[in-house]
Recover the amino acids of this structure.
């Protein structure tokens, strides 16, 4: 029986996992954060790494240490019904409803649209590009057995080549000094917390749970079948992938901060990166950036369709085949993508504010379950506390036209929960619930 992965196998799976993680938001959010944070970029980056790297790594570790083969198995520790609710909500959020449509729109609005003649209709061009992107994505997604080769060995190395070509050039020839740039907005008063909330938008803590099913399948494909060795290999490959993510986040945010004295504060991270690429590679920069962002989004979209379809086949084995789920999710994403990037982000933020605390509570409880001997009751209490508190964050993050209607409820949350106005109203209650559960479990087990 094979007991561990070879170095080449570990690197292949890590490259695949990095490729699955690193999509649209992983480029545009740290770039804008760097420009906005300016001299506070280090504090903002540290906050971003907490939610953008630390939480995804803990999610992978939770799957590995609990010997779970996916988010359904892990979340069923709360209850079977909750497992289905959370798994469906997670995959639909990071799949066809929000993340995949964002993979359609980001490369178009930040890269492809810059290359099109000004006389072309933007909406028609977006639809035409979406059809092409859809066709390529679905072609790869209907062949899930080769996803490790396509993403781990082809698309990820191609992306890294374009990325480092642009970023190393920018680091060698900086446009300015980050320490001389005045922070903008919330990055002036609370850069660390702003970085934490910016890391939410990558959706990677949720993706860490979602992509577990692909990682475990890939490890088994290399001949590792013993549960403990699968768990160990899962954590090892997760560490390698997350370290590479941390390096790229650091480079992107610092390049963003250094560019602001000359290029100014862009409207978003996609525009910031496009400006940087055009500055350092006049004439060719727009093409180079478009290729980089297109590959980044394509590989993530393929992984999201694959993992979402496999998860729904696992949950509802008698409903539809994998191919039918993949096609259905792709069609939904195609339709939503043509609504536009701004609308997608506006409606995705409230959902993320609800799901992230639930995911964090589940990850924290799973990681410490064996040490504290947590039972089902502990999972239920942690999840209930997280949900009650996160619901207030959900209401608060709704678009202005909707949030006004529930302002009375959010005012009550603001009075009762510290850090609520910072979007972290769940933090202290969940931490307190965890401490209480740990103490109660220790006393209970000592009596037994």
């Amino acid at each position: 029986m094979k007991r561990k992965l070879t170095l080449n196998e570990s690197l292949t799976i890590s490259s695949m996992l990095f490729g699955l993680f690193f999509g649209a938001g992983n480029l545009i959010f740290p770039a804008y954060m760097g420009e906005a944070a300016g001299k506070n970029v280090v504090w903002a980056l540290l906050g971003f790494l907490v939610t953008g790297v630390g939480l995804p790594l803990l999610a992978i570790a939770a799957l590995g240490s609990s010997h779970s083969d996916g988010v359904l198995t892990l979340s069923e520790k709360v209850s079977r019904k909750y497992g289905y609710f959370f798994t469906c909500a997670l995959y639909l959020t990071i799949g066809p409803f929000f993340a995949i449509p964002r993979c359609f729109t980001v490369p178009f609005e930040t890269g492809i649209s810059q290359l099109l003649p000004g006389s072309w209709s933007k909406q028609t061009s977006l639809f035409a590009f979406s059809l092409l992107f859809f066709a390529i994505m679905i072609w790869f997604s209907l062949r899930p057995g080769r996803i490790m080769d396509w993403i781990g060995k082809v698309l990820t190395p191609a992306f890294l080549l374009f990325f480092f070509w642009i970023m190393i050039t920018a680091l060698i020839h900086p446009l300015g000094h980050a320490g001389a740039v005045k922070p903008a907005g919330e990055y002036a008063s609370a850069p660390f917390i702003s970085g934490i909330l910016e890391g939410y938008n990558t959706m990677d803590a949720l993706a860490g749970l979602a992509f577990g099913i692909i990682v475990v399948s890939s490890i088994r494909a290399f001949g590792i079948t013993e549960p403990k060795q699968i768990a160990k290999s899962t954590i090892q490959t997760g560490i390698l992938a997350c370290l590479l993510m941390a390096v790229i986040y650091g480079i992107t945010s610092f390049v963003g901060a250094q560019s602001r004295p000359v290029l100014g504060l862009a409207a978003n991270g996609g525009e910031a990166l496009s400006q940087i690429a055009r500055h350092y590679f006049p004439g060719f920069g727009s093409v180079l950036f478009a290729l980089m962002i297109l590959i980044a989004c394509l590989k993530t979209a393929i992984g999201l369709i694959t993992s979402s379809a496999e998860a729904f086949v696992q949950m509802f084995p008698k409903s539809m085949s994998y191919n039918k789920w993949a096609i259905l999710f792709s069609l939904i994403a195609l339709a939503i993508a043509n609504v536009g990037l701004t609308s997608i982000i506006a409606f995705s933020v409230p959902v993320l504010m609800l799901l992230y605390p639930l995911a964090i509570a589940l990850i924290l409880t799973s990681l410490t379950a064996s040490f504290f001997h947590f039972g089902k009751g502990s999972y239920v209490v942690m999840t209930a506390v997280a949900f009650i508190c996160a619901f207030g964050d959900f209401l608060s993050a709704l678009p202005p036209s909707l949030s006004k209607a529930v302002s009375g409820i959010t005012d009550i949350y603001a009075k009762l929960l510290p850090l609520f106005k910072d979007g972290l109203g769940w933090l202290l209650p969940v931490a307190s619930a965890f401490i209480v559960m740990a103490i109660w479990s220790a006393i209970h087990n000592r009596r037994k």
Summary: Residues 340-448 form one domain. The mean pLDDT is 82.
